[in-house]
Structure formats: structure tokens, C-alpha cells
From TrEMBL:
Pfam families for this protein: HSP33
Disulfide bonds: 229-231, 262-265
Keyword ATP-binding: no
Name of the protein this chain belongs to: 33 kDa chaperonin
Location relative to the cell: Cytoplasm
Coiled coil: none
Source organism (scientific name): Salinivibrio kushneri
The keyword Disulfide bond appears for this protein: yes
Similarity field: Belongs to the HSP33 family.
Entry comment on modification after translation: Under oxidizing conditions two disulfide bonds are formed involving the reactive cysteines. Under reducing conditions zinc is bound to the reactive cysteines and the protein is inactive.
Molecular function terms from GO: protein folding chaperone; unfolded protein binding
Signal peptide feature range: none
Role according to the record: Redox regulated molecular chaperone. Protects both thermally unfolding and oxidatively damaged proteins from irreversible aggregation. Plays an important role in the bacterial defense system toward oxidative stress.
């Protein structure tokens, strides 16, 4: 099992659950495929940790997309994750970004959009305005409005042993739990003392002991987190098939080869005139079989 793991834990004496995620390889895979300014890299790391934590709360098979949209120099930042803890992410940068840019400076006026898509069932989407200075606070605002459960998050990114790392923690009151707000705030205050170096370097059990050594905590088996992109040559071919044949032929005549680039993993799919002819021939055969 890799170092990238999600850990769930439960407090025995109070109705609060917790999650801790450490993201080394997954975060590095996202960054190596793209060239963004440091503040955007940090934002993607925080979003990556948050998406992993949110995906772990799913009570069904499905996926979560955490997306930021705005009118600032970063028009889009998005992370996709599923119940298998398979994650990917990217961003679109259209302007200059200062080395110390904050979330409002990067996104401008914007929205946090969380989309939940069960394998079976209806799609759900929640939207809140980016009214806080941090992603962490915006997500807590989302939980307060949608879940109506007391929730706190800690999202961290930084360098450890010369490589970028991301990590996160979450505390949440159980839906039907007993206990008062004071119990939750006490645990949140303990979690506030966590340091980046501890999150990046210590095993989960040591982090929990460091924070909650006077509490009774049950730590459950870890779940591996991985980078995985769902792009494929077949999906790229389907995208070409959705365009008018005359338009595709015109592009091939002008460029010789059509290139479709995946922003998530950096893979480039090339289609020449022979490939294009095969795509539309197959598409025509499929249409005739359906009739």
C-alpha cells in the first residue's frame, strides 16, 4: 500500500467522527502533468485533500466533484474523486498570479460547486459563494448550509523532504449523535494544534495520539488513495464523432492530424485522416444497427 492513505476514526465517548488523509504521490502526479504558479498548486493540493475527505463521507458508490469557478485569473479549479479514492484534478489560469496570492485574488468573484453523482440515483449539486478567504472556510460554510452538521476541516500543503505534499483532517458530528457543541469544539481546539510537519511525516496513529491522547479513539483500517484519469482514446474518438463530419475533415485538411490533449494527465491523443474515417464509419455502422 502506498503512502497515500485515507484514515477514518471515531471517538468512543462523544458522537464525532474524524478523517485524516495524506497525499504524496497523488498530489505530485497532478502537479507533474501541469505547470501552474505556486499558489495554484497549493489550492489544488487543498482541494485534493478536501475531495478525498468528502468522498469518504459517501454512503453509496459514486463520485464527487469539487469545483471553483470565478472571474479572477484562475477561472476554474476542479478535483474529481470517487468512492474508490481515485482522484484527478486540473485548473485553468488566464492571468498573472502573485506569489502570495490569496483565494479571493486568484478566483475573484466566484462559486464553490460540489457535485455528487451516485452510480444509481439522482445527481445532487450544492453551490455556495466564495465569501471567505480560504477554501477551508468556504467548505465549512457549505456543510453548515447543506448538511447542517457541525463540521471542521484542516487542509495543508507544503514541502516535505524536497517534495510537495498535501494532507487534511475533518471532524464532523454524527447525524444522530448525542453530545453537545462543547464536546465538538474541544476536539476542534485539539486538532487546531496540528503542525504541517506532523501531518506530512507521522503515521496516522501517531498523529491521533499526539492530538487526542486523553480521548478514546478507534482508528479503522486505511484506504489507499491513488491518482487515476478516466480519459481514453475511445472517449476522445467519441468526442470527435460528436462533431459534424465536414468540420472534422476541414480540421484534418488544415492540420494533418487532430490532437486532443487531456488536461488532467497530460496524455495527447492524435487522429489522422485514416483514424477519422474509421471513427465516422464505425459511428455510421452503430447508427444503422440501432434503426
Amino acid at each position: 500500500m502506498s503512502n497515500d492513505q485515507l484514515h477514518r476514526y471515531l471517538f468512543e465517548d462523544v458522537s464525532v467522527r474524524g478523517e485524516l488523509v495524506k497525499l504524496d504521490d497523488t498530489y505530485q502526479r497532478i502537479l507533474e502533468n501541469q505547470d501552474f504558479p505556486a499558489p495554484v498548486n497549493a489550492l489544488l493540493g487543498e482541494m485534493l485533500a478536501a475531495t478525498s475527505l468528502l468522498t469518504a463521507t459517501l454512503k453509496f458508490n459514486g463520485s464527487i466533484t469539487v469545483q471553483l469557478q470565478g472571474d479572477g485569473p484562475v477561472s476554474l479549479a476542479v478535483i474529481n474523486g470517487d468512492h474508490h479514492q481515485q482522484l484527478r484534478g486540473t485548473a485553468r489560469v488566464k492571468g498573472d498570479i502573485k506569489d502570495d496570492a490569496t483565494l479571493p485574488e486568484m478566483m475573484g468573484k466566484g462559486q464553490l460547486i460540489i457535485t455528487i453523482e451516485p452510480v444509481e440515483g439522482e445527481r445532487y449539486q450544492g453551490i455556495v459563494g466564495l465569501e471567505s478567504d480560504s477554501l477551508q472556510a468556504c467548505l465549512e460554510d457549505y456543510f453548515a448550509r447543506s448538511e447542517q452538521l457541525m463540521t471542521r476541516l484542516w487542509l495543508r500543503t507544503g514541502e516535505h523532504e524536497g517534495k510537495p505534499h498535501a494532507a487534511g483532517m475533518m471532524l464532523q458530528v454524527l447525524p444522530d449523535g448525542k453530545g453537545d457543541e462543547g464536546d465538538f469544539e474541544h476536539l476542534a481546539q485539539l486538532t487546531d494544534t496540528i503542525k504541517n510537519e506532523e501531518l506530512f511525516s507521522l503515521p496516522a496513529k501517531d498523529v491521533l495520539h499526539r492530538l487526542y491522547h486523553q480521548e478514546k479513539v478507534t482508528l479503522y483500517p486505511a484506504q489507499e488513495v491513488v491518482f487515476k484519469c478516466s480519459c481514453s482514446r475511445e472517449r476522445s474518438a467519441s468526442a470527435i464523432a460528436a462533431i459534424e463530419r465536414s468540420e472534422v475533415d476541414k480540421m484534418v485538411a488544415e492540420m494533418g492530424t487532430i490532437h486532443l490533449h487531456c488536461d488532467y494527465c497530460g496524455t495527447d491523443y492524435a487522429f489522422d485522416s485514416v483514424d477519422v474515417a474509421a471513427i465516422f464509419e464505425q459511428n455510421a455502422d452503430s447508427s444503422s444497427q440501432m434503426q
